[in-house]
Amino acid sequence: MSEKIFSKDELAKFDGQQGQPAYVAIDGTVYDVSGVDAWAGGKHHGNLAGQELTSVIDEKSPHGRKVLAKLPVVGKYEA
What we know:
This protein is an alpha/beta fold. It has a single domain, classed as Roll (Flavocytochrome B2, Chain A, domain 1). 14% of the residues lie in helices and 27% in strands.
């Protein structure tokens, strides 16, 4: 099975709203944050699912990238 490639527009559909899963892209990888309570409703500390958030996790997140290892990978991001 080939890996799913997400464009910016495709990723935006997965915003955690109206029954959609919540996905975020970090450094070219798309992660499913739907099962993370802190991402309920597709929002987490002012950040929205369905977006590329590399700079946010690297520059503003207190936990950094260590949380990514626990998340399911759903594809690759290509802007």
